Amino acid sequence: MNRSPSVIAGETGTGKDLLARHIHAWSKRKNEPFKVVSCGNLKGELLEVELFGSERGAFTGAVAKRGLVEETDGGVLFLNEIDLISPTVQGKLLRFVEEGRFRRVGEVKDREVDVRLITATNADLRELVEEGRFRRDLYHRLRVIEIHLPPLRDRGNDVILLARYFLEEVCASQGVPRKRLTSEAESVLLSHRWDGNVRELRNLMERLVVLCDEEVITKDTLA
Fold first, then answer.
1. What are the DSSP E strand ranges found in the chain?
2. Which single residue of 25, 33, 49, 216 could bond 75 by disulfide (Cβ 3.0 to 4.6 Å)?
């Protein structure tokens, strides 16, 4: 199966995680695991252990632990905020991307898995490379497939398509009758700036489902 890594770039909230999930859902790996790591939430050794696991006694308090690359074998691993990983983890990630091999922290033997890596960032990785903050070789290895997600304000009628999609999705998850937007309400959505991008739009649709009793959402409902 395809192991080519991908980079999804775009402002915060543009739907990078949503796109990664769709890539997984439409791939030959769709029946295999999809795991997510927010790299900004885990620093240094914590991220290394989360990704690659550890052997008992590798460091104070360390236990034998499988990392996410093992748990995702056969599937897709999504690393968000890839620009925030440490130089040490960058080096280990490079080897994993190139060879599909890794070692748990404290281990002396290699392990091999079949994982497709999708990464995401809201930073300019090329600029970080020039500043010496991101490995050049890893940068080029990750961007076999590079996707740029423009901000929602630049995506025209995508606002309406996404609003309808989120409205239907939230109604289904909440177990309530389907709701619809009037054309006037959709015009209001098109005129909004959407500084929070796709995340802001989805949150609005969820709020409307929870707070609005009517099945038809008008421009007055949005006021």
1. 6-10, 34-38, 76-80, 101-102, 111-112, 116-121, 145-149, 180-181, 216-217
2. 33
Q: Whose CA is closest to 104, among 61, 41, 57, 38?
A: 57
pLDDT at position 153 over 80:
yes
35-67 tens-digit pLDDT: 999 999 998 788 999 999 988 766 766 677 899
118: nearest Cα among 37, 188, 60: 37
Q: What distance in Å separates the CA atoms of residue 2 and residue 28, rounded to the nearest whole number?
A: 8
Report residue 78 CA to chain centroid gap.
6
Q: Rounded distance, CA 4 to CA 68, Å?
A: 18
Q: Is the dihedral of CA 149, 171, 210, 220 positive or negative?
A: positive
Predicted confidence (pLDDT) per residue in 95-152, tens digit: 999 999 999 988 889 999 999 999 999 999 999 999 999 999 999 999 999 999 999 9
What domains can you pick out in the chain, each with its CATH number?
A: 6-149 (3.40.50.300), 153-222 (1.10.8.60)
Contact 50, 37 (CB under 8 A): yes
- Statement: the pTM of the whole predicted model exceeds 0.70: yes
The answer to whether residues 51 and 89 touch, using CB atoms and an 8 Å cutoff, is yes
* Contact criterion met (CB below 8 Å) for 116 and 79: no
| Sequence letter at residue 21 | R
Burial class of residue 148 in the structure, from the number of CB atoms within 10 Å of its CB (0-12 exposed, 13-18 middle, 19+ buried) = exposed
What lies within 8 Å, CB to CB, of 223 at 6+ separation is none
